[in-house]
Design goal:
By secondary structure, this protein is mainly alpha-helical. It is flat, with a radius of gyration of 25 Å.
């Protein structure tokens, strides 16, 4: 049996567990601060109805909501958003983002060939 270099016992998960509690606490605090900053920015960029719509989206599609939040923050940093977005403008933004996302994923197709399953004789009974 060939030996391809030294093995690390436990792998990556053990390295993360060996991190001292203080550095883990710092990392968690940094993540919490980032979440708070993001929420403060969104509160200043969206009115109450738009914020409620974003929270509803977050409940049903958390990945999409995170992407929308990041896009809104980027637009604000570029100066593309002036003032708070109302619900109507936010809905229009969601619709345009949805169209862009469907265009980018529309090239993916899944083909299922049913004839291939019919050629399988494993399930057929032999007499």
């Amino acid at each position: 049996m060939a030996n391809f270099g030294p093995k690390m016992p436990g792998g990556m998960s053990q390295m993360q567990n060996q991190m001292d509690p203080e550095s883990q606490k710092k990392i968690e605090e940094q993540k919490e601060e980032q979440v708070q900053m993001k929420n403060m920015m969104l509160a200043s960029l969206l009115d109450q109805e738009a914020r409620a719509r974003l929270n509803n989206l977050k409940l049903s599609k958390p990945d999409k909501a995170d992407a929308v939040e990041n896009i809104i923050i980027q637009m604000a940093q570029r100066g593309q958003i002036g003032g708070k977005l109302d619900d109507k403008t936010f809905t229009q933004l969601l619709e345009s983002l949805n169209q862009q996302m469907t265009r980018s994923t529309s090239g993916i197709k899944v083909n299922y060939d049913r004839r291939r399953n019919n050629l399988d004789s494993d399930s057929d009974e032999d007499y």
